[in-house]
Write a structure and sequence with these properties.
Elements lengths: L7 H11 L3 H9 L8 H17 L5 H30 L5 H16 L19 H12 L1
Amino acid sequence: MIKIHPHFSTKTQEIKEIISDPEYRHEIATGTFERTGASWRKLANMFKMNGCLIRQGLIPEKIYLDVYGYNVILSWQAVEEIIAILRRRLGPTVYENFEYLYMRAKFNAAKYPNGTYPRKMPQAVLKDKWAEKDAPVTQQISQ
């Protein structure tokens, strides 16, 4: 159940785009959206299940969040508006295990803002031969 979709970033971008469509928001609110093709639903259901397994102690939280914590946070941020719409009609328990996992991931990220790499363990020396050439592009993107 822990598998992350190989096109993760594409799917989260797609989700952000569909929520801007008022007709689609109406379909979510009324429960008439197409369930089989809803990539956000697959993503949310996967993290809902994983959140349940972690809450029940079947998957070690520390290991899971070390590997997938960042993806959990990005995924929640991608679907939170959809979940809010669903909760208008279905109540606060919709995707509560995903919400739990998201909050645990946020706490974990705050606790380890520089990651969990062992402090006394030497790190690899990275040679970024493209840094100088990429600097103008990187500056344009960040503005």
